[in-house]
């Protein structure tokens, strides 16, 4: 029978620790099945847990099946070098702490993400890191399902509305604003935004654009807001014709940049939110017989080895990809080791790497 | 009691099918737990299996735990766009047939590969696709362990000596020979090979080089052999100074190409076996104040969007990455569906994409 604790709610790890007369960390390690705990202390913790009625799912799971020392990671696109870098950070950190990492890629498809979460629950991973495609509170049931089974979840790269979870991101809005400010400082006022949230047609107003963006990924919204912030600060009016409309593909990007280059008051600079938008933009320049930075200036996400060997080399935003993954794994492993989830947003710094793709408008 | 079949060895699916009076495919589907089989036929197959003592692990597994409809994939480096493309091919094909795919990356570390194979066995995947880092018959115990547990394995990208498994690859030797022949046809005779098998110092002889290569990955060996084939056919003597020595990193590659550019009889062309070797070579050219194709010609593995937006665009070898993955998944799913492993090597065609990085020596 559980002892009367004189309060409501299930007993916590701290209460078990106090009852056993051990430190909280020792209780957490014992109950979580992680790390070394001597047999005598272990016995005391388990006796205290039983006395208090501590029966967390984690305990039941570790007792019935053993912990698996496996983390599950769900990424939006394994083919994006950004996620490859994040995965390496997760892998390096979790390997150092004795955990293997299994990865599922959803290719930005929410149905696939739901299936992936179910696979990870079924495979009994100890914890999950997700770069989620969910943009709405009605789209997070699969993440809640994992948490309900006492599988801790940490978000990476993207905040998800309505989920109060530990989250590791960069400040996308600030990174975008800095890039666009750099273009403005060089003298540009006709600055294309490539690519934006997928829209069937050009937004009539700035409000329409933001409403559309709100139905898209958090990181995409934030980059758009950073672009608008920089325009606002410089009192440059927003022009809907300078935002890419349509599918987010490299091929379509090339067409949209060609359209912006053909405007009577054409773009003189382009801000690219993805590496594929950079290559799409470069293709459009070549077709139009234009070169950078003479005819057009260019800054983009994410830096990579090719951007630095281009002639001229490209000014790019570098995300701390390895650190994003390492931090997400660290937070998750701490929770698995007994730390309480802190529901914090961890914001890492990106960096604008100045090379030679920005010049004054011709 | 098993019926006397008048022969040694465990009963096969074909024998169960004959006993049940059904087609082999029906017996395979029933015993493998895949695809639709009507209840009456299913009953007959199971009765025949019991009569003959058919107790394959797969049957035991599917009966006790159910199939999991999960494929496991072990890749050498999730950060290499080549593997990202292969994974997409695997994922598209397996999703279409109702299977999820979980991925582990070994970062070319054989110990990690062994751990990854154990994770996949532990997670009860139905089948495994591996791009293995194993180069020696003493390094394949983990792959045999999966097969012994009746988890079929298909190899992708790399053949592994001593493993007689279905394998999906390109003809690396032929692809390399074609690239080097293209450089020779343009008039080059001083052609660098970047990067080769990792060697501490330059090989004294061609035989030393091949012996060293034989202790490395099959695909690396094959690309080296293709380079040597092309030299032989053109009666160009092998020069050990034109082979990259040392760590296979982009940074070290830059140093090695700088060394080859500083030789009294310097390189006039470079053949790169990896995309990172291409960016490393381009960095060395920039430092030396040289440009391609005027001062030096260049062909590399693997084509990507950046190579085509360079100025001038690069002549590159394109591997059928999606098809490699799709074929590997198809072969594996066919085995899971009841087909017998055919122990075949499936060779897909790569393609040399001619752009503008090759010219006559200056």
TrEMBL record, chains A, B:
Residues 11-65 form the HTH lacI-type domain. The keyword Repressor applies. GO terms for molecular function: DNA-binding transcription factor activity; transcription cis-regulatory region binding. The keyword Transcription applies. Keywords: DNA-binding, Repressor, Transcription, Transcription regulation. Pfam families: LacI, Peripla_BP_1. This is LacI family transcriptional regulator. It comes from Bailinhaonella thermotolerans.
């Amino acid at each position: 029978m559980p002892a009367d604790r004189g309060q409501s709610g299930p007993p916590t790890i701290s209460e078990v620790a106090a009852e056993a007369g051990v430190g909280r960390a020792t209780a957490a390690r014992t109950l979580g099945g992680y790390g070394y705990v001597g047999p005598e202390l272990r016995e005391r913790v388990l006796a205290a847990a039983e006395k208090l009625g501590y029966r967390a799912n984690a305990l039941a799971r570790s007792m019935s099946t053993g912990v698996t020392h496996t983390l599950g990671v769900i990424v939006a696109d394994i083919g994006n070098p950004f996620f490859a870098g994040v995965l390496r950070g997760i892998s390096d950190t979790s390997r150092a702490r004795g955990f293997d990492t299994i990865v599922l890629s959803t290719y930005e498809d929410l149905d696939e993400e739901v299936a992936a979460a179910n696979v990870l629950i079924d495979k009994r991973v100890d914890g999950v890191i997700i770069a989620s495609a969910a943009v709405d509170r009605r789209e997070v049931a699969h993440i809640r399902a994992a948490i309900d089974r006492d599988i801790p979840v940490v978000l990476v790269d993207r905040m998800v509305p309505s989920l109060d979870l530990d989250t590791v991101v960069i400040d996308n809005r600030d990174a975008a604003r800095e890039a666009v400010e750099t273009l403005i400082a060089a003298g540009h006022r006709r600055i294309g935004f490539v690519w934006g949230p997928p829209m069937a047609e050009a937004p009539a107003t700035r409000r329409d654009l933001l409403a559309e963006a709100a139905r898209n990924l958090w990181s995409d919204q934030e980059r758009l807001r950073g672009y608008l912030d920089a325009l606002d600060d410089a009192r440059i009016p927003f022009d809907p014709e300078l935002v890419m409309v349509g599918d987010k593909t490299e091929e379509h990007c090339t067409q949209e940049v060609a359209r912006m280059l053909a405007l009577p008051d054409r773009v003189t600079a382009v801000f690219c939110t993805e590496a594929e938008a950079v290559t799409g933009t470069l293709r459009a320049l070549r077709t139009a017989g234009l070169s950078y930075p003479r005819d057009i200036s260019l800054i983009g996400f994410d830096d990579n080895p090719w951007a630095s060997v281009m002639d001229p080399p490209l000014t790019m935003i570098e995300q701390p990809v390895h650190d994003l993954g390492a931090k997400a794994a660290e937070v998750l492993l701490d929770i698995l080791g007994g730390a309480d989830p802190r529901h914090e947003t961890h914001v890492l710094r990106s960096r604008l790497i100045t090379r030679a793709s920005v010049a004054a408008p011709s």
